[in-house]
Amino acid sequence: MPEFSGYAAGTPCWVDLGTPDVDASVSFYGELFGWEADDLGEEAGGYRLFRLNGKQVAGVGPLQDEQQPPAWTTYVSSDDADATAKKIGDADGQVFQPPFDVMDAGRMTVAADPTGAVFGVWQPGQHHGAALANETGAFCWNELATRDMDTAKAFYTEIFGWESATSEFGQGTYTEFKVDGKSIAGGVVLDDNFPAEAPPHWTVYFACDDTDATVEKVKELGGEVTFEPMDTPAGRMAGVADGHGARFSVIRPAT
Q: Which of 59, 82, 94, 127 is packed most tightly, with the most Cβ within 10 A?
């Protein structure tokens, strides 16, 4: 079982969901992935931690703004959230609020890259990130979708030191972002295969044992399919959204 006690700086380490109805989302993901949720109390502003097999795998909390769409956020580990936030601003990114402490769990901020994709920065305290990943029912991949990959590459290299390698993939290309030579995230270009209104974004992938069955379960629970299951070199994947419209992907990784 892939358990983690920490993440190297520059590595996606945590994912959480902003939702207009925390109770409904807890029920949805509990049914879908078998997650249990711990309520952290009023001090945490309604935030809850999802657990799988007793291990923390993700978080969920209420939306902070009525205009904020329901969405999953990918957090990248940082040794110094304040220094990272300054780099983001200097590199033409947008920091939505100055870094702040989350009790004794860590220090964080949420930002957008120059192409508009939103992500989080996490400086660990007591909470180092997902204790379980790359396992059925846990997040296993994070992927950027943008209309300007060259700008995105330069930005993430400046902020996190990411290396990148782009290669042919189907009818387009795929970019792998790397830390110390290890692939830690991916990137696709929002080309004509995507809806014109699709905004730049980060997608969270959750591993499953059966992609088609998981998609059917999503529909039974009131969610929707954004792209049907398909086979890729990485595995069989599909795009879905929960009952509030928060999008994510599921994949049965190739063996």
A: 59
For residue range 39-89, list pLDDT tens digits in order: 888 787 889 999 999 999 999 999 988 788 999 999 999 999 999 999 999
For the stretch 59-65, contacts whose Cβ atoms lie closer than 8 Å and that sit 24 or more positions apart, written own/partner, are 59/14, 59/15, 59/16, 59/17, 60/16, 60/17, 60/19, 60/22, 60/25, 60/26, 60/29, 61/16, 61/17, 61/18, 61/19, 61/22, 62/18, 62/19, 62/20, 62/22, 63/18, 63/19, 63/20, 64/18
Structure confidence by residue, pLDDT tens digits, 240-250:
999 999 999 99
State the pTM of this model: 0.96
Residue 195: pLDDT band (50, 70, 90) is confident
pLDDT for 196 beyond 90: no
CA distances 174 to 131, 157, 187, 229, Å, are 28, 17, 6, 19
Structurally, the chain folds into a number of domains equal to 2
Rounded Cα–Cα distance for residues 69 and 20 (Å): 9
Q: Domain check: are 120 and 143 in the same one?
A: no
Where does a domain end: 93, 124, 155?
Answer: 124
